[in-house]
Amino acid sequence: MAPTRHAVLAAASILLAQVVADCNISSNYTIIDAPDDSKTVSTCDAIDGSLSLLFNSAPSSWPSEASVDLGSVGSIEGDLVIYPSSEPKKTIATAKSLKKVDGDITISVTGTTSSVQEVQISFPALEQVQKNYVISGPYQTFTVEHAKSLTIGGLMRVSDLESTDLSLGGVSSVKEDFSINSNKNLQTLTVGDLTTAEKAFALTAHSKLTKATFASLKTIKGDGTIYQNSALTSFALPALETAGTFSFTSNGANAALYLPKLQSLGSGNSSSTSTFESVSSIQLASLTTVKGALAFQSTSIEDLTVPLLKNVNGSITVQSNPSLTTLAIPRVSTVTDIFIKKNDKLTNFTANALKTVHSISISGSLTNVEFFGLKEVTGDFEVSGASSMDCYWFQQNLKKIVKGKFNCVGNYDEKERKSSTGGIENTEGNPSDYMTDIPDDTTGTNSNGGSSNGGGGSNSDDKDEAGSGGGLSTGAKAGIGAGVAVAVLLVLALLFCLWRKKREQPSSLKLSDSPPPSLPVLPMMEKHTVISSNSSSSEDVNSQYSSHYSVNNPNGVTMASGAINNNNSGNNSSNGGNNNSRSSIYEGDQKLGVYTTIEAGEPSSPSQVGTLNFGRISLLSSASKRLSDKGMGAWKTIRRVSVSSGEDEGNASSNSGKSNKSGNASS
């Protein structure tokens, strides 16, 4: 017997009530611990409570591939907990619609030390986790997918993985600590979307990790710690601009550290220290301010330069760097204390912008130490170098400004000394001058970094305006090249407009109907003679103008390019009505005996213009700018006019008398 309509409605009501009950469990967990448990939950838009996916509760009930799809679930008002098991070979958790979790997300294991073969997490729409996000467990292969702008309101931690590679795409901001630690097999790490760590940032205790890149990370508001990654050869933060402190210690003996855009370190506490240890190279091309102490120790760096550093409200310590030969802080003006010791090969130290310091303690085999700008030492000044190091200059110039103890061990023979830094301490400097490209195998892309010797540039032949090492970066060179290309195009455009007009005939002041038969192609400009401002006759003006823009045709005959008629008033009726609509658009500055005027009119046929070759050509910069502003179609005629005579230079050669100011040639 068929069910009645009332029976169908009653059954639907019961099912709906069950679904509603499953979707709204206040302060409790919805448990999925068997394959069929997710069917009801997957129809919910929101879960008012927490949700647990317990693959480890009854692992034998799952097939070899344990999978849960949360379907339509868009938000979870409590926590989301996922417990993979070692028994299913692959664990998959998918939530294609999930955008928000108000509590924590935890992906972990309990009660087992066995490896989990593969875990795959897919949250492609997830944008917000209000509290913590923790991933932990012996997962041989682990992959996770997020939306492009995932914000985590608490901490994020990834630990104890057994996978060799890890990519945390989509995570953009973490409000509490961000840490990746103790993943014993991890070899490469990429976190491409993280921009902000509001508190601490840590990468610690990885014995096999060789490369790590955080391509978008700009801000670490707490302490940045890279510690005990014994195989690390390359660590890149190519976008980092500021950090509370930064500690790079106990990592690979020859690690390269890339911090090319780091501008400031420290939280204001003079006792907080940023330490760089066990590195073969470090790029600090942009660092200007350190609010705390700065230390370089036990490195294999040969040349250490921090080119733009200006203010340090703590100490600078450089010690136990056996390969270091040169140390330079050329723009530092204030620092609390300087400690330099146990650097066996260090011979040269310069700090010529330094004006005030509390104490200086330097020892070693130094032969050259420079403080040519020093004005005040409120504590002790102690410098002990090689027997050839000049102490006479220090005694004559610095002893009187030292309020504490003065001691210098070296040579006291009288001699004249000058700064070796060429005045670079008085310049601002440009970070791009000290940047080189970060290798592709480090970041996956070519991005600007600093030089391998602290931003000083790897090519000793490249110098800045004050003589300091460090050539133009690839980006800077490309920018210059683009600018030159634009200038060339503007020059060609102006020459094209000039040549496409018919040549003027002296009798009628009209452009000729065809180009000169002896000059079918405009050849290379060869001369660049300045036109004298003392030109007094039309013949002199034309002669000098010919010298300024002389050209050689293929037959070896030198000809002067003709100037175009300079009529700005109603004197163009004799031109057959071709120029009645002409109006002055640009009147150039009166310089070097002539000035340029640019007018709107009808262009001549492009077929009358030959191939353009150009050499060295000078144009007024304002005319070039207006050409780019107005567009090519608006510029029809270019004329050059003598300042002293007021003549059109193109007509001057055919007239013995001077033309009037309106541009009419005398008869």
Automatic annotation (TrEMBL):
Position of the signal peptide: 1-21
Stretches with biased composition (Low complexity): 441-450, 532-547, 565-584, 651-667
Superkingdom classification of source: Eukaryota
Compositionally biased spans, kind Polar residues: 420-430, 548-558
Lineage: Eukaryota, Fungi, Dikarya, Ascomycota, Pezizomycotina
Keywords in alphabetical order: Membrane, Signal, Transmembrane, Transmembrane helix
Residues passing through the membrane, by range: 478-499
Source species of the chain: Bionectria ochroleuca (Gliocladium roseum)
Protein name per its UniProtKB record: Receptor L-domain domain-containing protein
Keyword RNA-binding tagged: no
Nucleus recorded as keyword: no
Region (Disordered): 414-470, 530-585, 642-667
